[in-house]
Predict the structure.
Amino acid sequence: MITRLAESLGYRVREIEDGDGTLSVGGHDGASSLRVEWKPVIVEGYTGSGSIDRFAIRTRDPGLRGSLGRLRSLLRKPKDADPVELARPIFGLLEPGYYGARVWSDANVHIEPFGENGTAWWYPDEPIGTEGTAIIPTDTWPPDDSATLAAYAEAIEEGERPLAVTLRSEPPGDEEDCAAFLIDGHHKLAAYRRTGVRPHFLDIAHLADRRPCDPGDLRDVIDGDAKLEQSAANLMRYLEDKRR
């Protein structure tokens, strides 16, 4: 069934048999984690608190930026319109399994950057700038290097549509209430925002049994912070219950 959903949304589905697992996404939307070099770096989910509906927590491990930098150095975009070919360098980094890849054009998104405490919070589908898919950055937002941003903005104004790269735990059942991790293309996305043009993505979705991420991933990114433990208590109970 999840394969049919993916194909109906324009994903080309492939089985990855020889990925090395450097990059992985686990769980389902609303309870998913992103791992880089086999360590959890971001967990997103519903709070269940009745106040802030969804949030994401990023590890404060100083090695995060180095891991993501090494990852991005491995990503190269072939000059091919086939989403499977475009995604091939990333497929080689993913853990084995089934994935879908699509070119996601004119996407309706909002960006949820992390604050100083390593968290991001948002209300889905509210007329306050959070309509559409929540894009969770994996690097500094807004990005540094104004020259790179300006070059992409100029290219977009001239009609080019460069692809940023997103990875998500499953195909979106509801584009207005879902989340995707931005693993490459922060300057491209910032340039789209500057020009007012809706962004274009190479969007990759994991196709797996609909189970939440490991509660250990959430513990790792919280790293003993008492306030974060309190904020994430309902999500932690959900993850632990589903693992029993």
User: Anything to note?
Assistant: The chain has a mean pLDDT of 87. The chain is about 30% helix and 30% strand. The radius of gyration is 17 Å.
